[in-house]
Structures are given as structure tokens and as C-alpha cells.
Amino acid sequence: MNRLLGVALGILTAIGGFLDAGDLVTNAVVGSRFGLSLAWVVGLGIVGICVFAHMSGKVAAVSGRATFEVIRERLGPRAAGLNLVASLAVTVLTLIAEVGGIALALQLASSVDHRLWVPVAALAVWLVLWRVKFKVMENVTGLLGLTLIGFAVAVFLLGPDWGELAAGLAPSVPANESTTTYWYYAVALFGAAMTPYEVFFFSSGGVEEKWTVRDLATSRLNVLIGFPLGGFLSVAIAACAAIVLLPRGIAVDSMAQLVLPVAQAGGMLLVAVVIVGIAAATFGAALETALSTGYTLAQYLGWSWGKFRRPAHAARFHLSMIVALVVAVAVLATNVDPVAVTEYSVVFSAVALPLTYLPILVVANDPEYMGEHTNGRALNAVGSVYLVVLTVVALAAVPLMIVTRAGS
Amino acid sequence: MNRAAAPPTVSRRNASRVAAPTCAVLAGMICACAVLGGCGAQAGRADGERAVIAVGDHLDEASSAVATAQLALESVRDGLLPAVTADATVGRAVESVTAAAHDLAALVPPAAARDAVQGRLTAWDAVADGVAAVAQARVALGADDDASLSDAIAELDDAGAALDDAASRLDAASRLRETR
Amino acid sequence: MIVSDLLDLRAETTDGETVGWTVDARLVLDGPLDGPLARPRLVGLVVSPHTRTSFLGFERAQVPAPWLIARPLRRLHRGTFLVRWEDIARLPLPAERRDPDRRSAVVLRAGYGRHDPRL
């Protein structure tokens, strides 16, 4: 019974934890401009993140090693150093986006300018990182983030023509958009679904929670049920935008526009629920990205790390998270638009994807680490196909960004 | 591997190995900041055809912002959206519509491209009306009475129609040029 | 000396013929206890004849999967062998290593043995 409860809790937090500022913004932007014609990319990304999160969780549970320790061991200091720079830059960029996202969500609830909320949000994130237990932190933000189900509820309340909506799922480029822009947003959505920090966090979290081989089944369930449901919510966000905003010619360029369809569907109450969800999801993701900067740096440089250690015993780990948060506040203080940062963060995530996922695939096959738990043929086949896809996406991302002038 | 017995050069080399990735991280962050800095407005001279396309894009941006403000105000009028949330939404719409106006003003079509020059002028009037309507919307939200809300919504509706009109005229003009 | 002084070096015979590049060092833990682990001892260097790029650990065991990665890597590193520490005649001095032309090399003793690189 207790175990069942644990599994349910894990799945629920995985749903809430899947969505972050990148998913929220990118899905709303895409829904308002392309309808559901890019929903297939979310599906593709979900399968990918399931495959690789499952692998990294398995490596963590069996070998007790987190992803970046593995990357450092396998690629050697130089190649892993390059990988570190890329991953860290992307993760810090994502952290900036998340902190900005919290501030924007708080602005929606208070109408106090988001720039004023930024230091408050960062301080709150730091306090939680410093004081709150890993498990509590994960479960609270995950469960609160679950209120984003409000977007799915909104889709039903809006009562769209379901046949039309389903027909819109077919991949096609709308008349007023160019093919390159379509593919640019395909890359962005893919990057948002598969952001590398999720894997660093997932595997390091496995070490934090002292997973063993016995937890493999639970971890697999969390991933295989939680992430697809998170992806379902992503599509619901896009559907809301497609139903309400697209016909009015509104192209989403702010977090605030996300609540407009929800207001049309469910009024004040549903708006309040969804704002709580946005704040919780971005807050949870800010915690995860801040931790991921600490995890990657500490794991590369061999520092002691982990929230299960007292801060004094993992001082450099905690210090690097503080530095990352200070960088985030400093960048947001330059009056840069957090939504623009978010859009860039998902595209650069796409660039860094193969760097993160290649070593995981290699190590998950190594009997030295994995004993009898090495990948099966099917998992390897899917993993290899994805590696090709990831490489193509990574190579295409920056040229597409330049050609489309970042999708404008 | 025994650190105590190692010659001093070892620790110095280790220090430089730690320093190298740190420098690399800093370099990465500087690059990221440079990218962020590049998010600013694109302005400058353009050939005639590109200028027409750019004018059309800025019209779309402006009408998206106006439609956002209108939807937000309608939601407040119907009791669906809290005024604070609407205010944040319209506040962002002000930024978007002024950005569109800024980019439109910064655009320099070549003098020979008549349709681009004329299109920009027409567009400017519509976008300027849009800026005024969106700015006025926040006043109405502050006043919080139905009459000023309805007035503001009507004003936004007009501004939206003017923007659509400017866009279709721009379309027609450029289509005419293509057939010529 | 740290381990990267031994890596990414050209390996040549006493006649000056290049046989490959050092891509890894092989250690065993069979020394006296030093803390919880036995002190490691250097057994030899792994030399790859065709490339100086990383082998991602595929030389350690006969892992065939994932095929997409294992196959090209194996091909790139075909003929990789382990040279025992006793078979190494000379290592480059630190000053030689800094030589920009990278002419410095690990010189293998005449009649050195090529051993299986697998663990």
C-alpha cells in the first residue's frame, strides 16, 4: 500500500516536474501560430526523454553514478570539459528563464512589475535549496505544478470542434508562415521537451534519493507514465492557444497571454489555479536547473555534492548554485525579456542534446557499470535512432535560428 | 597518486586544470550574454520588397498586441479575469505594440520603392492608433467601471480594424507590384 | 608526473617508426592499502594505431552495443594494443612535450609485446 502510494506520488511529481518555462512558452507560441500542426514534435520529444531519462535513471540506480560523473569518466577531461561548458551554459540560460518565469507568474497574481519580483524569486529559490529536504522540495513543487491540469480542463470547457482539432494534428505549414519558421519551432519544441538539465537532475536525484536496483521498476513507471502525461499537458497548452488566440491573430509573446484562453474557458477560479501552476512549475524548474548547475560542475570537478549532505560538507556545490542564481538575477536585471531568454534557452538546449545523451547511451551498455542491467536490443535501437535525430536537430538549430531571425 | 609525496609542480598543474574549465565556463556565459544582447530590435535600410514584408510583420505584431488587450478587457468585463492579471497582460501588450512602432519607425525603405514608403506611412498611422488604444486600456482597467471598459474595448476594436485595413492595403499594393 | 603526461603522445619504435598514439593508461589496484583502496600501479599504455581520439571505453571490454556507436569506434581504433610499462624505453621530457611540432614521442623497447587491450 505504502509502495503504491510512493509510485503514485512519483508519477504525479513527474507530471508536474516535466513542465517548465520553456515548455509553457514554446507550446503557447507554437499553438498560437501553428495550431496543433507541431504536436507531433512533442510526441517525438516525449518518447526521447522517456528513453534517455529511463537509461540515466537505470545507470544511477545500478552504478550509483550520476550522469556527469559518467560523462567525465568516458570522455576524459578535455572532451567532457567542452561538454561541461555547453551543458552549463544551457542550464544557466534555462535557470535565467525559469527565474524570469517565476517573476512573470507573480506579476500575473499581483500586477507588481516582474523586474521587482526577480530578486525575491531568486532569494526564495536559494532558501529552498539551502534548507528544504530534497524529497519535500520535489513533491511540493511537483504536486502544485500538477494544477497546470487546468489547461487540459480549459480545452474541454472551451468545447472545441473535436474533429477539426484532431484534423489540425496533421503536420502542415500554415499559409502565413514559412517552412523554415515551422522547422525552427519544431527544433525549439524538441529542445523544450528534451532539455538536458532534466537528465542531469533525474540521475542526480536518483543518487540523492539513494536508488538501488530495487527502485528500477518505480523509476521506470515514473518516467513512462509521468512524462507522457506531462507531454499531454504541453499539447493542451498549445490547444488552448490554438482554439482561442490563433483565430484572433494573437501571436503569443508573453507569459501573460497564456491565461487568456483559460479565462475564456473557466473564469477567475481556473485562472487562479493555472497561475499557481505556472508559478509552481517555474519554481520547481528553477530549483532543478540551479541544482543541475551544481551537480554538473561538482561531478565534473570531483567535488562532494548533493542535498543529502549538509551545505558545509558540500560547500563548493552550494556556492556554485548561489553563483548561478546571482548570474540569473544579474542577467534579468539588464531588462532582457524573460520570454525571449526562454525561447533562446530551448533552442540552445537542442544544440547541446547529443553531448548529453551519447555518453548515457554508451554507459548504459557497459557491463562494467551495469552488470546484468545493460540495455536490451530494442532500447538500443530506439536510443540509436534518437541519437541520429538529436544530431540532425543539433546541427540544424543554429542555422535555422539565423535564417528565421529566431522565428520572427 | 600519493599527494603528500608529489612534487609541487603537480598541485600547480592541477590548479591550472581547474582554472581552464572555469575560464571556459565564463567564456560560455559571455557568449550567452552576447546572444541575449542580440535580441534587440532589427532596424536599418532594406530593399523595397523586404521593406514591404517588414512593414507587414510589424502590422501583425501590433494587431496581435491590440487583440490581446481587447481579449483581456472583454474577459474583465465578463467577470472572467481578475483586473490585476489583465493589467499585467495589457502591460506586456503595451511593450509589444510600442516595439512594433519602434521597429516600424526605424525601418528605412529606399526612396525609389514607392509602395514601401507609402505602406510604411499608412501603417504608421494604424500602429500609432494601436499604441494609444492599448495604453488607454490600462487606464480603463484602473478606473474599473463598465462604461470606461466598454469605451476602451470599442477603441481597441477600431484600432484593430484599422490595422487589418492597413495590412490588406499593403497586401493589395504589393500584389499589384508583382503583377506589374 | 600526472597521468595526462602519458596520454595523447605519439608512440614509436626504436627505429623511429610511428606505431600509433597513446589513448589511455591502464592501472591495477594491487599495491599496499592506501585508505580504503589498494594503491594503483601503472601496468601500461593503450596505443591506438589510427587515431588519437577517445575510445569512450570500448577498448575495455568486448561491448558490441549500441551498434551505431560501437561499430565505427571499433573500426577507427582497429589494431589497438596494450604496451606493458616494462616495454617502454623512453618517455618525452616535459620540455619536449611543450614542443609545438609535437615531435616528442613515447619510444617502445625493441621487441616490445602487443597485448590485448581488454581488461
How would you explain this protein's 3D organization?
The complex is a heterotrimer of chains A (408), B (180) and C (119). Helices cover 79% and strands 0% of the residues of chain A. Chain A is mostly helical and 408 residues long. Chain A has a single domain (2-403), classed as Hydantoin permease, CATH 1.10.4160. By secondary structure, chain B is mostly helical. Chain B has two domains: 1-39; 44-179, A middle domain of Talin 1. Chain B is elongated. Chain C has a single domain (3-108), classed as SH3 type barrels, CATH 2.30.30. Helix content of chain C is 12%, strand content 36%. Chain C contains two helices and six strands; from the N terminus they run E-E-E-H-E-E-H-E. Chain C is globular. Chain C starts with 9 loop residues before the first strand and ends in an 11-residue tail after the last strand. The chains are: A mainly alpha (408), B mainly alpha (180), C mainly beta (119). Chains in contact: A-B, A-C, B-C.
* SSE string of chain B: HEHHEHH
Question: Could you say which overall geometry of chain A the principal axes of the C-alpha atoms support?
Answer: globular
Low-confidence stretches of chain A: none
* Rounded Rg of chain B: 26 Å
Tell me about the biggest sheet of chain B?
2 strands, parallel
- How far apart are the termini of chain B? 81 Å
Percent of sequence in beta strands of chain B: under 5%
Residues in β-strands, percent of chain A = under 5%
Please state the second-level CATH architecture of chain A. Orthogonal Bundle
The appropriate CATH architecture of the largest domain in chain B is Up-down Bundle
Count, helices of chain A: 16
Question: Structural class, from helix and strand content of chain A?
Answer: mainly alpha
The main pleated sheet of chain A reads as:
none
Radius of gyration computed on alpha carbons of chain A? 20 Å
The helical percent of chain B reads over 70%
Q: Can you identify the CATH superfamily of chain A?
A: Hydantoin permease
Domain module count of chain B: 2
CATH topology of chain A: Hydantoin permease
Distance between the termini of chain A: 52 Å
Primary descriptors:
heterotrimer; A: mainly alpha; Hydantoin permease; 16 helices; B: 180 residues; 2 domains; two-stranded parallel sheet; 2% strand; disordered N terminus
